[in-house]
Amino acid sequence: MNTANTSWRQDAAAQQGDLRHDWSREEVEALFALPFNDLLFQAQTVHRRYFDPNQVQVSTLLSIKTGACPEDCAYCPQSTRYDTGLEVEKLMEVEKVLEQARAARASGATRFCMGAAWRSPKQRDMPHVVAMVKGVRELGLESCMTLGMLTQEQADELATAGLDYYNHNLDTSPEYYGDVITTRTYQDRLETLDHVRGAGMKVCSGGIVGMGEQQADRAGLLQQLANLPHHPESVPINMLVRVEGTPLENEGDLDPFEFIRTIAVARIMMPASHVRLSAGREEMNEQMHALAYFAGANSIFYGEKLLTTPNPRANADMDLFNRLGIEPEQRQVERAPENPNPQFYDASAAAG
Ligand code: SAM
Ligand code: DTB
Ligand code: SF4
């Protein structure tokens, strides 16, 4: 039985003994050190055990409360501590959010993600976000929220409202974390993930690369994510968007192949999770997108804006999907299909 409310893919992979939670740092670093072609071949092979390699899940993102955040995340344009010229907006009205959700559905999104620039939600905010979750679910969309840290009670309340996914990123390795954020600890983040899982919601957790961290830190982030008691169902890999006014505005470029390696290693370590090619796509060309999909990325944020920064236009994404023979993934089923397509879910391959 699926007590942790993980996806059927995770259950199937667990039954095959294909989900590891005991990765050592050396093992992860060894994956990063593979010749590029060997790493991508391995990632693509693993990808095909649990996913149709020609489908990409499409989510839409909306900022429901923008800016004036008390936290000091060095990458974030929404922190009140940095002058980024961002226009602050208070919590949106429920009906306005649902209007956007309807538009997202019409443009083909299957999941609607709502983000708030909060350290954590206040009790007075909860009825509003609960109403948003219920409204989005009634539209037949999967719902996702990212509201900062949650207590167990808040996580339970969101789960009861029907929230499918909660996004809360570990962002980087435990060692590098203190260089980026001082107002909440790594342990705080792990506790929120524990509360989300405890409430029976699906977990979306990943991080950011290109913040000046070492390869060992990227390995450390993925090690932390894969060694959680359950793999997050969704793993966003963000490339830093350098925003003027933030402490990381002048950070140097990350080698693009290092970004692709991070996707591939995430795919290998968390074979039944959706790996999301997340922030930073605006600066990536089509070839880079295609490589990321080949390395095992199978989810994107779709639409012209992320939370506050630009994202490629939907037309450009659809055009590339067409040229690559990729289709948007239909809404996820809760159970394995009666007859899973053996090409994409091959139990014997998973066991081998
Ligand atoms: N305030 C909530 C929190 O931090 O938990 C939710 C919203 S926050 C903006 C969600 C995530 O967006 C962060 O954890 C971070 O990984 C990502 N993010 C924020 N600014 C970014 C940037 N400039 N580049 C890449 N990713 C970014
Ligand atoms: C995640 O990992 N990336 C998204 C989502 N979770 C909420 C946010 C990216 C934000 C990029 C900067 C901005 O647009 O403000
Ligand atoms: Fe606030 Fe979230 Fe931005 Fe950190 S990442 S400053 S918590 S909005």
Let me know the largest β-sheet. 10 strands, parallel
**Count of helical regions:** 13
Q: What structural category arises from helix and sheet content?
A: alpha/beta
Low-confidence stretches: 335-352
Heteromolecules bound: S-adenosylmethionine, 6-(5-methyl-2-OXO-imidazolidin-4-yl)-hexanoic acid, iron/sulfur cluster
Residue share in helix: 25-40%
Task: Please state roughly what percent of the residues sit in beta strands, choosing from under 5%, 5-15%, 15-25%, 25-35%, 35-45% or over 45%.
Answer: 5-15%
Q: What is the 3D form?
A: globular
Order of helices and strands: HHHEHEHEHEHHEEHEHEHEHEH
Count the E strands: 10
Q: What is the end-to-end distance?
A: 24 Å
Question: Can you offer a commentary on this structure?
Answer:
This protein is of the alpha/beta class and 352 residues long. It is built from 13 helices and ten strands. Strands 1, 2, 3, 4, 5, 6, 7, 8, 9 and 10 form a ten-stranded parallel sheet that branches. The relative contact order is 0.19. It binds S-adenosylmethionine, 6-(5-methyl-2-OXO-imidazolidin-4-yl)-hexanoic acid and iron/sulfur cluster. Residues 61, 77, 115, 146, 167, 169, 206, 236, 238, 241, 278-279, 306-309 line the site of 6-(5-methyl-2-OXO-imidazolidin-4-yl)-hexanoic acid (DTB).
Please describe the structure with a list of short key phrases separated by commas or semicolons:
binds S-adenosylmethionine; 352 residues; globular; binds 6-(5-methyl-2-OXO-imidazolidin-4-yl)-hexanoic acid; alpha/beta
